[in-house]
Task: structure prediction
Amino acid sequence: MASSNGETLIKLDGIKKVFLTDEVETHALSEIHLNINEGDYVAIAGPSGCGKTTLLSIIGLLDTPSAGSYTLAGESVANLTPAQQAYVRNRQIGFIFQAFNLIGDLTVFENVELPLTYRKMPTAERRERVMEALERVGMAHRTKHYPSQLSGGQQQRVAVARAIAGKPAILLADEPTGNLDSKNGGAVMDLLKELHKDGSTICMVTHDPRYAEHADREVHLFDGQVVQDN
Amino acid sequence: MRFSLKNFRYAVRALRRRPTYAAVAIGTIGLAIAANTTMFTVFNGVILQPLPFRDADRLVTIDVRAHTGFPISLSLPNYRDWRDKNRVFESFAAGADWGMTLTGRGPAQAIYALAAVGDPFGTLGLRPHLGRLLTPEELPDHEGAPFVTVISHGFWQQHFGGQTDVLGQSLVLDDQVYTIVGVLPPDVGFPQASMDLYVPMGTLPNLPWDVRSSSFGTRGFGRLASGVSLETAREDMARVGQEVRAEAGDDTALPELRTLSEFIVGDVKTPLNLLMGAVVFVLLIAVANVGNLMLARGEDRYRELAVRGALGAAKTDVVSLLLAEAFVIAIMGGLLGAGVAYLSVEAVMGLLPAQVPALLLAQVKVSWTSLVFALGVALGAGVLFGLVPAFRMARTDLVGSLKSGARTTDQGRERLRSALVVGEVAIALVLLIASGLMLRTLDKLRNVDKGFNPESVLTASVPISKERNATREGWLGFYSELRGEAAVIPGVRSAAMTLLLPLEDRSWEMGLHPEGVPVTPETTQSVLYNVVSPEYFETLGVPIIRGRGFTSSDRQGSNLVAIIDETMAERFWPDAEPLGHQITFETDSASTPVYRTVVGVARNVRHYELTEPSRIQVYVPFEQTGVRWGMGLRIALRTSVPPSQAAGSLREVVTRLDPSVPVSRLQPLDNLVERAMGQSTSITRLLTAFGASALALAALGIFGVMSYAVTRRQREIGIRIALGAGAAEVIRWVTTRALRLTALGVMLGLVASVALTRMLSGLLYEVTPIDPVVFAIVSAGLASVALLAAYLPARRATRVDPVVVLSEEG
Ligand SMILES: Nc1ncnc2c1ncn2[C@@H]1O[C@H](COP(=O)(O)OP(=O)(O)O)[C@@H](O)[C@H]1O
Ligand SMILES: [Mg+2]
Result:
């Protein structure tokens, strides 16, 4: 196991995921063991269809494993109710998607504010957090814009701001540069690196070896199994 | 724009591939058109169609206003003078409804006849179905007319089975033998098609042929000469009235003209207009719903249309394609609607106000006009809900909409869809408030203080035979005996005879003078005059609030007495004790006034209308009727069993006393009350049905828009869930959107209601058109239904799999 400085944040043991479609079983993940410590920057790499997104969904509590145990910050998440899962997602997890997934009808500010609206938080504090996050990604001057008025790179920076606004325990990014050209992609990767330097725990999916190197640890998946972890 | 057959074929194929969508769209529009066509059919028959008489617009009826200002009926001297002096009528006639007893054909039967003078059939332009009609020579304005009769088509069918040998046969009516000379065509008659037969007034005994002030129910009517306007006719008749008054005296009544159609259609116009308006509202909601469906469908076709555009289709081609589909839906909906209307007209007619005359109901048929109406509405709706989405679609930048990060859905179209739902909610609210107001009115009517207790009372009309009616003793003896025997029928608690029953549409007004006032026509006060046996007050549950009721000692020879009602007590002796005062009725005083003593005060009874306090009613004991005996009386039985159970025994009692006497109008007193509410009841029923349809359609609209929003926004919902929104937040998000639309619709609807419910005010009773209770309850109810309609899509939204936002690539 490579460099880890903090406590164990995520602990996956024997995680399996089987999809059943039209009587065909797809073993998306088989026997995944993986630990992520606080402050880690992990890149998950592997060919298309090897189960990267599935793994990230399970870590992000968007999906539940078919077997295995998953401990997040020392607590098992196996038996959480949907409402508890939502609570954990909202407090502990920050998502960054390949397709940005900003909400078209909301302004930049409102998009970033969105996860905070699911918490009981005074408006002033919410505002402060949003502006802080937007400044962090260099988008504070575009608060009133709509996503469609921004470039792809700008949209993804807003998405990053949305992910960090709630001060989550871990950032999960699924091919965050997949929809960007190399210049914009590079800028987003630099942003993630800075966040990591400032202490954020990041787990990023990518199939681009160049970006995988940004991380201080690479996990290679193949056919639903970890084939290399360094 | 080209409407090629290919487009229509394509539209039909496209609809067949989406059976649910097609069924919902066609069903919605079809049902709305059915409702509209049904109402239109009724509306057309009752209001738009001319009366079933030749040149009906030239027919007028003559109302008579007494010098006292009250409406009375036409006396024969006035009839003669008005007929002879006018310069505007081509022909002239008069008739009085006359209850007669038919004997010799099975058990004695009460029938309805019109006793006619002049030329009624020529005036109305009627032709015989069989034989001939009565001529002016057979209908003289004096005694000594031939005993001939024309029967209605219905009477012919019922009594002669439609046999053609009916001509020349005879009928025994009130002990006189009449010869049948003709049969009327079906569904016509005067004043109603249900009139059994027509006899010369000159065959009836003892009519006041030469008493100018008499009033026994005769109505005059005439045909204006061609080219004479109603205005001209009114002026001329006003002149005639004044001339006659100048000759015959100041207390001569005056004529007033109305069109015959106003006389016959009269009261039902307002409610029918209202219902027609309501059903158009339902149609608007249905159109909005289908419009919404089409918009949704249009959005699903984005890609297809983009491809067509890319392949070089002009925008007009795309528009005509969408229009073709709209038209196919409209036409199918129209056909479905016409079919359902055809089947449902009969049922709706059963719900119509009883006040709609049978003469007009007979005209209610699903005709070509109705079918043209249905298809016209369908096509109009088709243009409306096809054109708007089609043009919006044509204006859309299809390629631009595929850009990443674009608005989740097209804002303009979503706004239009939302606007449609807001409109639906507003319209539904207006309809529901209208029916809410009517329901409250009905409730108030049920609980109105009628002054009597209609529960458990059986009533019937029992005429008297000529022999018994020949003497006062015969008259009194028959009715006293009848009352006595009826009182001991098992289950009967008390029995009473009475001249008038409340709310029965039968009245007897008399001029009255209190003591100290000179008995002259100028000082006379018209009051309701009722003749009752002592048990009347107990039997009908009319409380005596001062003094006493009648007793068996109030008989001929003892002190003449009367009971007055509260209104009279207040009006005549506001600050004094009414008991002990003397009153007299004008005809009693033909020579010297005969005074009666007021011995009691009864609670006010609603006699003419449930909703209006009656004019004064004065009661006289039936053994003290003085010169005024001989009228047919009603019997009332208060029962300890359901009143209809006593009906058979009552018939037996009457038959045992006199087999030649027909019992008619045998019904619980409750029926009269129900009938008095009839119009309100049926309007309420129909309005509530329309309101409920509107509510269902609006709920469907909200459900549709929210379902669609949820489908379109799966990704957005997925993002929200990924960011930590729980089920509660997602449900709140969807329902809040629905509630926002609903709130807007409710606000608009409230504003519209304030403006529109005023039209209802004539139909409301003790409920203001902006009744806050109704407004509040209906708004809250509608909001709850909206919430419910939004809840299902909201539930579905919580089941959106957030993984979709990870797996879709934008
Ligand atoms: N919801 C699903 N239903 C069925 N099969 C799925 C589902 N999601 C993913 N899979 C399958 O699981 C495997 C892994 O998919 P995924 O995790 O998306 O791979 P990656 O992100 O590495 O490209 C693939 O074979 C994919 O087809
Ligand atoms: Mg993937």
